[in-house]
From TrEMBL:
PANTHER family: HEMK METHYLTRANSFERASE (PTHR18895), MTRF1L RELEASE FACTOR GLUTAMINE METHYLTRANSFERASE (PTHR18895:SF74). InterPro entries: DNA_methylase_N6_adenine_CS, HemK-like, N5-glutamine_MTase, PrmC_N, RF_methyltr_PrmC, SAM-dependent_MTases_sf, Small_mtfrase_dom. It holds the Pfam family PrmC_N. This is Release factor glutamine methyltransferase. GO terms for biological process: methylation. Residues 11-69 form the Release factor glutamine methyltransferase N-terminal domain. The lineage of its organism: Bacteria, Pseudomonadati, Pseudomonadota, Betaproteobacteria, Candidatus Accumulibacter. It comes from the Bacteria. Substrate binds at N179, P180, P181, Y182. The gene is prmC.
Length: 294
């Protein structure tokens, strides 16, 4: 007989201690407190086999979120699968910055481009229920996961399958957020760290010899046609792409250009707004604490 305590001890000899604990809790349907208080609780033969299979997959580099089927993001649990990018903690900065810009608006129109698992759209709708949120993704499989997460958290979001602005027609928004693929196709990191198990189209623009910014160029280039006067565009990008993204925002005719670092001090999100009637309101709301401004 294998107990949950023994299973945890054996698993952590092969994988990270925390990963081992979470896999045991997942298979045994127990909490951390249960694991500590009742280590002698037995696992069934089926549970032992399930745990062994999950540990083996984790040793091969498959993301823990894929193994347990969910991940925490901005205070909520979200379903994930191999069809979507696993949400990263640094992307929570994008939510923080977006909510600051939505706070003073009565019924803001929001677009999430390349929604993936829907964590941005769902988080924004949960914290700003008066917002009208539309989420776009080219992957039908990703939208299945996104809709599942919207239902899980009881929010109403309009999901549309399509390529960036393509399915939005002439719609305009107070806020557009995007966490597009920005890893250069030649980046060696794509072959390590669990990335081979995530959808390639969510990681890189696929341009051979490119800089990873092709999708970002499309998003920034089309922003002026889809923002309301004074509306904001917020884009996540790579650690070494801040300067290039700020230049793209400037070339697109947007103003108030800024970049914010994540908790590791890495330039992570850049933003700008379409000139218009909300310029004065935005400045009064104290949004200009950025690390860079053009």
């Amino acid at each position: 007989m294998t107990t949950i305590g023994e299973a945890w001890r054996l698993a952590r000899q092969r994988i990270d201690r925390l990963d081992a604990r979470l896999l045991v809790e997942h298979v045994a349907s127990c909490s951390h407190a249960d694991l500590l208080a009742h280590p002698g609780r037995p696992l069934s033969a089926l549970q032992v086999r399930q745990l062994e299979a999950l540990v083996q997959r984790r040793t091969s580099g498959e993301p823990l979120a894929h193994l347990v089927g969910s991940v925490g993001f901005y205070g909520r649990e979200f379903s994930v699968s191999a069809d979507v990018l696993v949400p990263r903690p640094e992307t929570e900065l994008l939510v923080e910055l977006a909510l600051e810009r939505l706070r003073a608006l009565q019924e803001p129109a929001v677009a999430d481009l390349g929604t993936g698992s829907g964590v941005l759209a769902v988080s924004l709708k949960c914290h700003c229920p008066q917002a009208r949120v539309v989420a776009v993704d080219l992957s039908a499989a990703a939208l299945v996961v996104a809709r599942m997460n919207a239902a899980r958290h009881g929010v109403s979001i309009r999901f549309i399958e399509g390529d960036w602005y393509g399915p939005l027609g002439g719609e305009r928004f107070d806020l557009i957020v995007a966490n597009p693929p920005y890893v250069a196709m030649s980046d060696p990191h794509l072959a390590s760290g669990g990335l081979p198990f995530e959808p390639r189209m969510a990681l890189t623009d696929g341009v051979a010899g490119g800089d990873g910014l092709e999708c970002t160029r499309v998003i920034i280039g089309g922003a002026a046609m889809h923002l309301l006067p004074g509306g904001w565009l917020l884009v996540e990008h790579g650690h070494d792409q801040g300067e290039a993204v700020r230049q793209l925002l400037q070339e697109a005719g947007l103003t108030g250009i800024a970049t914010w670092p994540d908790l590791a001090g890495i330039e992570r999100v850049s933003a700008a707004r379409l000139p218009g009637s909300r310029d004065r309101e935005s400045q009064q709301d104290g949004f200009f604490f950025q690390t860079h401004e053009l």
